[in-house]
Structures are given as C-alpha cells and as structure tokens.
Design a protein that fits this description.
about 325 residues; alpha/beta; Rossmann fold; two-stranded antiparallel sheet; globular; binds S-adenosylmethionine
C-alpha cells in the first residue's frame, strides 16, 4: 500500500498532521480518531457499517453493534468544531425478516452526547432488492446533527430552482413583486428520486449501483453528489471534513472538488487502494463522475425491457379473474 502514497499531486499523508490537506488513516476508526485534535473538524459525513453481513463486517447482535459504535461516536463528537455538523447516513438492520431502522437506534446516542438534530433527510432511490414479504425498501436516511446552535449552514450554494419562480406577493407593500428567491428554493429534507435533479427542479441522487458511472468494487459507496451537497451546505473552503468509515474515499474526492481538506479512516487496505486510484484518476481528469444535474435515465417505454412480456398475459388474466 505504501507505494500508492507516493503518487503525484495532491499529496496524501498517512498520519495526522495539521499541515496536511488530505490524510488517510489506515486502521480501526476508534483508534485513528484519537490522533485528531479536539474541535478541529467542521463536518463529518459517514455511512457506518450497518451490521448486515457486508464483506467488511461480522454480523453481531444489535445491542453489541451499538455498543461497539459508541466509542467512535464519542470520538467524532470530541473532534467536531463548535460550529460543526455530523451527517450520519443509515438504513435498516434486518433480523430474521424484522427490520430495525438504525437511525432510531443511533438517535438517543447522539442526543446523549449533546448533539442537536437539524434534519432527518430521506434519501429515496428507485433501485434495490425486490422484497417478497414486505414492501421493497427504497429509502435510507441521513441524520444531520450539529454540536451547537451556532452552526455553518450555507443554503445558497445548494438551492434548487423553484417550481413556480413567477409567483408574486398578493398583498402588502410587495404586492406584485416576485415572492421567491432568485437563487432558487431550499432543496428540502426529501432527496427524491423521480426525474431530474439539482439544476432541473428536483433534487435526486441515485444510489451507486452496477451501472452508475462512479461504481468501484466497494459494495456500498456514497454517490459523490450526495457528499457534495452536504459539504457545500455545512462547511466552508479550507475546512476539514472527515469520514471515519471512509470506504472508497468519496468524501475526499468531494472535498477536493470544493477546496476543503479531508481525512478518512478505513480498516481495509483494498478500499484505501481504491481511494488512491480514484484520487489519481480525479487529479488526471479521468474519474468518472455523475455530473450534478444530469437527469436520471427514465425509460421511454419503447425499450425491450420496458415492454410487458407476452408470457405474462395469461398470468395476469388468472390473477384478475
Ligand atoms: C458503508 S461503507 C462506507 C462507504 C463510504 N461512505 C464511501 O463512500 O465509499 C463502511 C466502510 O467502513 C469500513 N469500516 C468498517 N468498520 C471499520 C472500523 N472499525 N474502522 C475503520 N473502517 C471501518 C468498511 O471497510 C467500509 O469500507
């Protein structure tokens, strides 16, 4: 792995230093966070292991899982600046067909550490496993917490165009004048997968699955767009952002794109290698990034896969009789 740290710009260091802009800490997050000074990080965006048997985790009972995560959360809160934020992205823990939404479990822990929740964002996507004994899960959540009441929140860089920009005040001094904001509207706490995103009305971020341009071998990496949005709204240029469960290094790429500094912790060497590869590709203009605002593909209905198979006509008749 050490060879990968010798690549050209940008310089990546493998131990914490206040002077470094990009730091990758290989090892257990709980230990790595101990090297980072208190209140030095503006934003943490992370998706922890969900304890659902992914290749990088051992499934353990929920109580043990939460207990094992608590020291990491404590470390995160210690290093978070007073104006800082944590975006904690989780889905469901599944136990023998019963689901436990993990945000419900994590909320009291964050609350007991003094954090304040500002939004529980629904991240909706249109793809995933088709369940047979419950409705198919098509959303996860991002819980946004702040350390204090005085926190960074830059709405303007993440505004989306209003649906009705021509709306006007209907009474008072401003009667007849536009009632909206020329920069667009607040993107809301529902990050919806429908048709268009970012600069095309609706804020939509597909999840990174097989045919997404950003896909690596990592089983559950963030879409860069999702992290970009958090970074633009909740940090300023030159701030440090961090992901204690760094995976394929998405937060570092997004930080580079928006002039932030970044730290990631990751226990698996193979994911650090992917991160380094992505950083090199990004620096050389070769990283495939789904552009902000690119419409999500919606079938025209003419494609073969959009057609109802002829074989199904009998089946349908049987069901509707
Ligand atoms: C859900 S993935 C994060 C993906 C990441 N957000 C991205 O965009 O690529 C969780 C990652 O945490 C790593 N991980 C799990 N337990 C860890 C620990 N105790 N310390 C450091 N990394 C850990 C896993 O190897 C995995 O890559």
């Amino acid at each position: 792995m050490s060879d990968l740290f010798c690549t050209s710009s940008p310089e990546i260091t493998k131990s914490y230093s206040r002077e470094s802009s990009y730091i990758i800490l290989h090892g257990d997050a709980n230990e790595s966070l101990k090297d980072i000074p208190s209140e030095s990080i503006q934003l943490i965006v992370s998706s922890p292991p969900y304890n659902i048997g992914k290749e990088y985790e051992k499934g353990i009972v929920l109580k043990e899982y939460l207990e094992s995560m608590t020291p990491v959360l404590e470390g995160m809160v210690r290093i978070l600046s007073q104006e800082g934020s944590i975006c904690w992205q989780v889905g469901n823990y599944v136990d023998n067909g019963e689901i436990v939404p993990l945000d419900i479990c994590f909320y009291p822990i964050f609350k007991s550490l003094g954090l304040k929740m500002r939004n529980r964002i629904i991240w909706h996507f249109d793809h995933g496993l088709h369940a047979s004994k419950r409705f198919s899960g098509r959303y996860e959540t991002i819980c946004w917490f702040t350390k204090s009441d005085s926190y960074v929140f830059n709405l303007d860089p993440v505004r989306v165009p209003s649906k009705y920009p021509g709306k006007t005040h209907f009474k008072g001094e401003k009667r007849g004048l536009p009632s909206g904001n020329p920069l667009g509207k607040n993107p809301s706490d529902f990050w919806k997968t429908v048709e268009q995103d970012w600069d095309r009305l609706i804020w939509e971020i597909p999840n990174v699955k097989a045919n997404h341009p950003e896909k690596t071998i990592h089983p559950c990496q963030f879409p860069i767009e999702l992290v970009q949005r958090c970074i633009l709204a909740l940090s300023n240029e030159n701030d440090f952002v961090l992901d204690p469960f760094g995976g394929a290094g998405t937060i570092m790429i997004a930080a580079m794109m928006h002039k932030r500094k970044a730290i990631i912790c990751e226990k698996e060497e193979k994911y650090i290698e992917i991160t380094m590869q992505r950083i090199n590709d990004y620096s050389n203009g070769r990283l495939k990034i789904r552009p902000l605002g690119k419409p999500v593909y919606s079938p025209s209905g003419k494609e073969k896969v959009s057609q109802i198979p002829i074989l199904w006509s009998d089946e349908k008749e049987k069901i509707t009789k």
